[in-house]
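User: I've been trying to design a sequence by hand for this structure and keep getting stuck. Would you show me what you'd pick, starting by listing the structure so we're on the same page?

Assistant: Good idea, let's start from the same input. This is the structure you sent:
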């Protein structure tokens, strides 16, 4: 007689209470809402973002969920939860699909740049490293993101309770247009044959309609993102889609102002190489002089989200000050015959104690 194992009962009482908080935004393929989850046992609350799409855009959210499932645990990638999409019915009786992902309390890079304008060179390097680490994960799994832009790069604040210091971890999101490298993009079948967003699209996105999409397409978009972080405004700012298309076909790239530092300029120029193979790979760009000069102490090979440690290096003091701490106080005798005491020559000699000469600060921060 066969024994059947009883299915474990689901304790719905211990299931966190889910509550709608607010809408985070709407896009081409759906909307994103913020939900809070409160545990019954200890009353703790955590937050997740829920991406919602209707049946018309099912293919996009399904593609994104499958890609994110493959990239779980990878550095620089927004994490998804669950084994499948959630299917529900909205207030109009229409079927909708939901995907639960981690909540980025810092918003996206677009808003961060809008608030802070031009970012510091150190912050640009940090964000570029994190973005490249995410791209390495995407490309190593054989994918091309196809829509890299600041709006799709999310920021996660990391607070240090002791120092009250806040750093940010940058992660890539929105994989709705992602395809396998070597495949043909469905974007070329539409009226506007572009892969990605026009402001950040590469020349081959316009020129090679119907051709296979390669990983180097993402590197051109990366250059546009880095340029925007450096100058605080969009590449091709003020240009229409048709003007951008014409300039790309004419062999032009977004202008890099003279104010952009030399190493950053060379990095962006490499991303803007006309031939995709000349852009290198995400792994190679991580070793570019623009980034290796200020490598992180923590997380250099990981997610890159840890706060950079700042060390102090003490320069060796000049030889004349080497033993200053060991010197005794000096006694200086001022003679009464000195010109300054001509009229008070009968006064006794004066004694003046000189303390050791203080050593000037020689601490230099190591970035």
């Amino acid at each position: 007689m066969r024994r059947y194992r009883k299915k474990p009962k689901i304790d719905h009482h211990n299931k966190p209470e889910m509550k709608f908080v607010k809408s985070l935004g709407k896009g081409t393929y759906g909307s994103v809402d913020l939900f809070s989850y409160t545990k019954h046992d200890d009353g703790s609350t955590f937050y997740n973002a829920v991406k919602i799409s209707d049946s018309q855009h099912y293919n996009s959210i399904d593609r994104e969920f499958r890609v994110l499932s493959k990239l779980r645990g990878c550095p620089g990638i927004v994490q998804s939860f669950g084994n499948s999409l959630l299917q529900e019915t909205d207030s109009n009786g229409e079927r909708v699909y939901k995907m639960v992902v981690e909540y980025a309390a810092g918003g996206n890079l677009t808003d961060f740049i809008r608030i802070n304008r031009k970012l510091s060179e150190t912050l640009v390097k940090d964000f570029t490293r994190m973005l490249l680490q995410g791209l390495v994960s995407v490309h190593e799994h054989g994918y091309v993101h196809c829509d890299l832009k600041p709006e799709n790069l999310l920021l996660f604040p990391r607070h240090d309770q002791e120092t009250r210091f806040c750093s940010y971890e940058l992660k890539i999101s929105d994989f709705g247009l992602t395809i396998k490298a070597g495949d043909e993009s469905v974007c070329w079948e539409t009226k506007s044959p572009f892969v990605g967003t026009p402001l950040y699209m590469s020349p081959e996105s316009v020129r090679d309609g119907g051709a296979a999409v390669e990983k180097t397409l993402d590197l051109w978009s990366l250059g546009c993102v880095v340029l925007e972080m450096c100058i605080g405004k969009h590449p091709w700012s003020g240009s229409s889609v048709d003007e951008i298309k014409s300039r790309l076909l004419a062999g032009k790239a977004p202008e890099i102002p003279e104010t952009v530092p030399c190493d950053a300029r060379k990095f962006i120029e490499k991303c803007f190489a006309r031939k995709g193979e000349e852009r290198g790979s995400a792994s190679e760009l991580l070793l570019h002089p623009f980034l290796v000069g200020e490598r992180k102490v923590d997380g250099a090979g990981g997610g890159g989200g840890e706060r950079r440690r700042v060390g102090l290096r003490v320069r060796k003091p000049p030889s004349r000050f080497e033993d200053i701490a060991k010197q005794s106080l000096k006694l200086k005798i001022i003679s009464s015959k000195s010109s300054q005491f001509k009229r008070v020559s009968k006064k006794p000699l004066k004694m003046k104690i000189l303390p050791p000469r203080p050593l000037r600060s020689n601490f230099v921060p190591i970035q």
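That's my pick for every position. To get oriented when you compare it with your attempt: The radius of gyration is 30 Å. Residues 315-366 form one domain.
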